[in-house]
Records
---
Amino acid sequence: MASRLHELRTARLLLRRWRASDREDFAALNADPEVMRYFPSTMDREASDALVDRIEQHFDTEGWGFWALEVRSTGQFIGFTGLNSVPDDLPVDGDVEVGWRLAAQAWHQGYATEAAHAAVLAGFTQLGLSEIVSFTALANAPSRAVMRRIGMSEEREFDHPRIPPGHELRRHVLYRRRPDPAVP
């Protein structure tokens, strides 16, 4: 996968590399308990900035990653959507995941589905991926709905090794999609 995908466009969205000006809004998003309700905890500014640094490092290494998500008509940063290498410590067979995290004010407008669909298609058509996975806490019905809308199929449940036993978010579900030449 030598391709470099620094930017994607949809009808309403720009998926792009991160800017320094995104960090403050991203930190606010990561500190919002509602946005982070399906994660073990919120993130402080330092942890949020470290995540952006890891995302940008992935772009530098792989040429693609979790893009900053911007509404084209306003230029407003609303979160991220994109592709990421699946961490080695997860019991998930699949090399690349699609994921997203949007600010609460961007929910219920179809942005996650629109951006995730674009990321998946780019993964298949421009990066030549043979499959893409996604996973979330079993209780995360909104993200599971996005996974289904972008053509992913539920495969199996697993316990997330970074979440302690007994924690309500430990149980996760894995979705997978392979390219279908008949369906764009």
---
Amino acid sequence: MQLLDVTVPIRPGMVVFDGDPPVRLERVASLAGGDGCNLSRLDFGVHSGTHVDAPVHFIDGAGGVEALPLEAMLGPVLVVDATGQRGHIDAGAVARLGIPAGTERVLLKTANSRLWDLDHFSTGFVALTVPGAEALVDLGVRLVGIDYLSVAPFGAPAPVHAALLGAGVVIVEGLDLRAAEPGRWELFCLPARIDGCDGAPARVVLGR
């Protein structure tokens, strides 16, 4: 099986969503310093890099990461080519992507992936609109991923997230899909289990 890692590495200085905590990695013990091992401390927001959103991220009282269904994050996935999309992905754009009804997992490959080359956060990323999100729900999608730090437009995150999370759709954000050819793959997405948390970093790998 060909495996393709579409995870954005966690590292100090990486781009994070506007207002999120920066990534800090500190070596607190070192072999070179006479300690018995190398030991590091990592401090970062749980929505840094490639991560999964939990329902409680935008729905008060809803489940945390531990409540996410593993079966939704493992299995066949369709990578769709939305690199030509200008503006946000509405219901019409979803229809033009030709996603068959009953497709459970969809990754939206947009022009966003090029933004990972920038050294600053960009507000001009492609995202879903509420009608676009609802169109995916109507198709039976259980997981949707996108190749930047939010599935929702900058400045208006709540409605799109609520439309997806409220329908039980798992959201994966912060993917790098530049090397992912459109088409069918197997998805392996395992977020860190952080009980009660609104999100968690994930290692996401595609296989075919």
---
Amino acid sequence: MTLSRIGRRPINKKRVDLEKLVKETYELLSEAERKDRKVDFTVKSCPPVSSDPQLLKIVLSNLLSNALKFTRKCKKAEIEFGCKIKDKKTIFYVKDNGIGFDMKYADKLFAPFQRLHKEEEYEGSGIGLATVQRIIRRHGGEIRAESLPGSGSTFYFTL
């Protein structure tokens, strides 16, 4: 239902302080996930963006939640949000040191109900990244992932 609604909802773009939104989103969703864990969460300096803040919060919530979920077995989880400039475009990223995945399955990441890990190991419906991709595309951007099994994942997106 959420995925369907995201496609029909009008976009209400505003100037968004991304660093602030990332920190707020992380604090809201991570309290239970951080309990009894060491999580090194870093937010690098990024420029403000023109986007729909509610939709962008859904993107960040999904990406950060996944980073927390897939670093659960790390002694010290490391999660970083930042950006870099390439070809005059700002590319944002969420990087973690979690379990990672084999890139040969990367095409399944953004498809609804596709999962790369067993439900017994990691909860989830397989709809989060499909929702993220839809929101990013509605903002005229792209999203992609890089990963290695056992070496974490990085999700890059533009708006």
